[in-house]
C-alpha cells in the first residue's frame, strides 16, 4: 500500500478516535497534566465528588422521618459540598484554560494542517485502479481520477478545444475523492449503528381518545335552551 | 351563688322569646330582619326593583350594539375610501417594493436606535407590513405536537437507516462483487446475467436501481408523513422558516417556503444517492484488492 494511503488512514483514525472520546478529554488532560497545580485541583475535585456521592447514598438509605437529625446533618454536608465542588470546578477550569488553548494549537499543527497538506499536495495520487475504464461515464472517470477540480476545468478545456481526458490511460480513484467517499461511508455506518442499536426508542405519543361524541342538538332543543327575557328578569 | 347550668339558661331564653311573640314582638323581630325599622340600615329595595335595572341594562346594551355596528360600518367606508385614495396615488406614483423595503428598514433602525437591527425581527416586521391582507397558508400558525414530531423523526431516521442497510447489503455489495470478479463471468453467462454484470452496463444498472430505490423511499416518506399527520411545510427546518420570512412580492416566486421545503427534500435524496455512490467506490476498491 502506498505510504500516502497509510498516512491518510492514520489521520482519519486519529480524528475519529478524538471525536469518539471527546467526553473524556477534560479528565485525561487534568490527570496527565505536567502542571502540578492542575493535577492537585483535579484530585481535590475527584475527592469532593466521591465524598458527596457517599453521603448522598447514605442519605438515601436512611429514612428522613426516623433519623431526622442524621438526615439533616448529611443534607447540610451535601449542600456545603455542592458549593465546594462548584468552586473547585471553576478553579480547575481557570487553571486549565491555558493548557486547553495550548492543546488546541498542538492539534492544529500536528494533525489538521499536515492532513490538509497531504490532501492538497498528494490529492491526485491514485489509490487503486478501477477494474474497467468503461464502468463509469467519461466525466465520472475524470472526476474520480483527477479530483473535484475536474468539474470547473471541464468547460474551460472544452472551450480551448483540449481533450479533458487526454492523460487518462486507466481510470482510477484519486486520494482526495477516495477520502471523501471513505469519510462519508464511515459517517453513514455510524448513523446506522447509532440509530438501530444504540439510540433508545422514542415512545409512541398517547392520544386521548374522545369516546363520547358531542351530541348534536336538534332545533327544538336549541329553542328550549335559549333563555327567555322572562327568565333573565 | 347559684350558677345556672347551660340547659337552664337555654330554657329561660326560650320562655322569654315565647312571651315576646305572644305579646306581638314578632312583628318587631320581623321588621328587624327585613330592615323596616326606623333605625335599620338594611336596604329596603325589593328584588322586583332589580328587574327594572336589568331591563335598563338590556336597553343600554342594545344601544351599545347598534352604536358599535354603526361605527364598524363607518370604519369600513373610511378604509375603502383610503384604499381608493392609495390606489389612485400608486397609479400616479408607482411604488417600488424594494424602495419601500429599504424605507421600512430605515424606519426600523431609527425606531430601535441601533445601527444593526436584528435580521429576523426586521424580516418579520416587513412580512407583517407587506403581508397585510394577503394571508398565505404558510403564515397561519398551528400548534405543533412536539411528542408526535419527535416520534416521527425517530421513525424517519429508523426507516432511513434500514433502507440504506438493505440497499448496501442486499443489492449493491453482491452486484459489485459479481461485476468485479472476472472468474464469475462464466457463471453469469450460464444464467444469462451477462448483460447485468457487464462492466459497460454497470453505471446504467446502478442509476436505474437508484431511481427505483429513491421512488420507493419517497413513497414511504409520504406515507409516514400522512400516518403521523405531519405537514412538511409547517415543520420545516430553520432554513425553510428563514426563507418563509421573505415577504411575497420581493421575489418572482410564489409560495417560496413550499418550494424551499421541496428543494430540501430533493437535496436529501441527492445526499442518499451520493452516499450510495461513495459506498460503491469504496467497495470496488476493497473487492478488487481482496
TrEMBL record, chain A:
One of its GO terms (biological process) is mitophagy. The keyword Hydrolase does not apply. Gene3D superfamilies: Helix hairpin bin (1.10.287.660). Keywords: Coiled coil, Endoplasmic reticulum, ER-Golgi transport, Golgi apparatus, Membrane, Signal, Transmembrane, Transmembrane helix, Transport. One of its GO terms (cellular component) is Golgi membrane. Its main location: endoplasmic reticulum. Residues 31-98 form a coiled coil. Residues 190-233 are cytoplasmic. It is a multi-pass membrane protein. One of its GO terms (molecular function) is membrane insertase activity. Residues 204-233 are annotated as: Disordered. The keyword Disulfide bond does not apply. It is found in: Endoplasmic reticulum membrane; Golgi apparatus membrane. Residues 1-19 form the signal peptide. Required for the post-translational delivery of tail-anchored (TA) proteins to the endoplasmic reticulum. Together with GET2, acts as a membrane receptor for soluble GET3, which recognizes and selectively binds the transmembrane domain of TA proteins in the cytosol. The GET complex cooperates with the HDEL receptor ERD2 to mediate the ATP-dependent retrieval of resident ER proteins that contain a C-terminal H-D-E-L retention signal from the Golgi to the ER. Belongs to the WRB/GET1 family. Component of the Golgi to ER traffic (GET) complex, which is composed of GET1, GET2 and GET3. Within the complex, GET1 and GET2 form a heterotetramer which is stabilized by phosphatidylinositol binding and which binds to the GET3 homodimer. This is Golgi to ER traffic protein 1. The lineage of its organism: Eukaryota, Fungi, Dikarya, Ascomycota, Saccharomycotina.
UniProtKB/TrEMBL annotation, chain B:
InterPro entries: GET2 (IPR014802), Get2/sif1 (IPR028143). The chain crosses the membrane at residues 161-180, 200-218, 269-289. Residues 16-49 are annotated as: Disordered. The keyword Nucleus does not apply. It comes from the Eukaryota. One of its GO terms (biological process) is establishment of protein localization to endoplasmic reticulum membrane. It is found in: Endoplasmic reticulum membrane; Golgi apparatus membrane. One of its GO terms (cellular component) is Golgi membrane. Keywords: Endoplasmic reticulum, ER-Golgi transport, Golgi apparatus, Membrane, Transmembrane, Transmembrane helix, Transport. One of its GO terms (molecular function) is membrane insertase activity. Required for the post-translational delivery of tail-anchored (TA) proteins to the endoplasmic reticulum. Together with GET1, acts as a membrane receptor for soluble GET3, which recognizes and selectively binds the transmembrane domain of TA proteins in the cytosol. The GET complex cooperates with the HDEL receptor ERD2 to mediate the ATP-dependent retrieval of resident ER proteins that contain a C-terminal H-D-E-L retention signal from the Golgi to the ER. Belongs to the GET2 family. This is Golgi to ER traffic protein 2. It comes from Tetrapisispora phaffii (strain ATCC 24235 / CBS 4417 / NBRC 1672 / NRRL Y-8282 / UCD 70-5) (Yeast).
Amino acid at each position: 500500500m502506498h505510504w500516502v494511503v497509510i498516512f491518510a488512514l492514520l489521520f482519519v483514525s486519529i480524528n475519529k478516535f478524538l471525536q469518539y472520546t471527546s467526553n473524556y478529554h477534560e479528565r485525561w488532560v487534568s490527570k496527565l497534566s505536567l502542571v502540578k497545580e492542575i493535577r492537585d485541583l483535579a484530585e481535590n475535585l475527584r475527592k469532593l465528588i466521591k465524598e458527596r456521592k457517599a453521603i448522598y447514598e447514605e442519605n438515601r438509605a436512611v429514612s428522613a422521618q426516623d433519623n431526622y437529625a442524621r438526615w439533616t446533618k448529611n443534607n447540610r454536608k451535601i449542600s456545603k459540598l455542592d458549593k465546594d465542588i462548584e468552586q473547585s470546578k471553576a478553579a480547575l477550569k481557570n487553571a486549565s484554560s491555558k493548557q486547553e488553548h495550548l492543546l488546541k494549537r498542538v492539534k492544529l499543527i500536528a494533525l489538521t494542517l499536515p492532513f490538509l497538506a497531504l490532501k492538497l499536495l498528494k490529492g491526485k495520487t491514485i489509490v487503486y485502479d478501477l477494474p474497467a475504464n468503461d464502468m463509469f461515464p467519461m466525466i465520472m472517470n475524470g472526476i474520480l481520477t483527477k479530483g473535484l477540480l475536474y468539474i470547473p476545468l471541464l468547460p474551460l478545456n472544452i472551450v480551448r478545444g483540449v481533450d479533458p481526458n487526454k492523460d487518462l490511460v486507466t481510470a482510477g480513484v484519486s486520494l482526495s475523492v477516495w477520502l471523501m467517499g471513505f469519510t462519508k461511508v464511515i459517517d453513514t455506518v455510524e448513523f446506522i449503528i447509532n440509530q438501530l442499536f444504540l439510540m433508545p426508542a422514542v415512545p409512541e405519543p398517547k392520544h386521548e381518545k374522545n369516546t363520547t361524541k358531542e351530541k348534536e342538538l336538534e332545533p327544538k332543543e336549541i329553542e328550549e335552551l335559549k333563555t327567555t327575557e322572562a327568565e333573565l328578569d | 351563688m347559684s350558677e345556672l347550668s347551660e340547659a337552664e339558661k337555654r330554657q329561660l331564653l326560650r320562655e322569654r322569646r315565647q312571651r315576646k311573640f305572644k305579646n306581638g314582638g314578632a312583628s318587631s323581630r320581623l321588621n328587624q330582619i327585613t330592615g323596616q325599622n326606623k333605625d335599620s340600615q338594611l336596604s329596603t329595595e325589593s328584588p322586583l326593583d332589580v328587574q327594572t335595572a336589568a331591563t335598563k341594562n338590556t336597553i343600554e346594551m342594545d344601544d351599545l350594539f347598534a352604536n358599535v355596528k354603526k361605527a364598524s360600518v363607518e370604519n369600513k367606508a373610511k378604509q375603502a375610501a383610503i384604499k381608493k385614495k392609495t390606489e389612485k396615488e400608486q397609479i400616479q406614483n408607482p411604488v417600488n417594493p424594494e424602495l419601500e423595503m429599504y424605507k421600512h428598514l430605515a424606519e426600523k433602525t431609527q425606531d430601535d436606535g441601533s445601527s444593526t437591527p436584528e435580521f429576523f425581527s426586521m424580516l418579520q416586521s416587513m412580512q407583517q407590513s407587506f403581508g397585510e391582507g394577503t394571508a398565505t397558508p404558510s403564515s397561519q400558525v398551528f400548534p405543533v405536537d412536539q411528542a408526535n414530531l419527535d416520534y416521527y423523526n425517530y421513525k424517519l431516521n429508523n426507516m432511513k437507516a434500514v433502507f440504506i442497510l438493505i440497499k448496501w447489503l442486499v443489492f449493491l455489495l453482491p452486484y459489485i462483487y459479481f461485476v468485479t470478479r472476472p472468474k464469475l463471468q462464466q457463471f453469469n453467462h450460464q444464467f444469462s446475467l451477462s448483460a447485468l454484470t457487464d462492466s459497460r452496463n454497470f453505471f446504467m444498472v446502478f442509476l436505474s436501481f437508484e431511481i427505483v430505490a429513491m421512488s420507493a423511499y419517497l413513497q414511504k416518506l409520504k406515507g409516514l408523513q400522512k400516518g403521523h399527520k405531519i405537514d412538511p411545510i409547517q415543520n420545516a427546518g430553520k432554513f425553510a422558516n428563514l426563507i418563509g420570512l421573505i415577504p411575497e412580492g420581493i421575489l418572482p416566486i410564489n409560495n417560496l417556503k413550499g418550494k424551499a421545503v421541496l428543494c430540501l427534500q430533493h437535496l436529501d435524496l441527492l445526499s442518499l444517492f451520493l452516499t450510495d455512490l461513495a459506498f460503491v467506490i469504496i467497495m470496488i476498491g476493497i473487492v478488487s484488492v481482496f
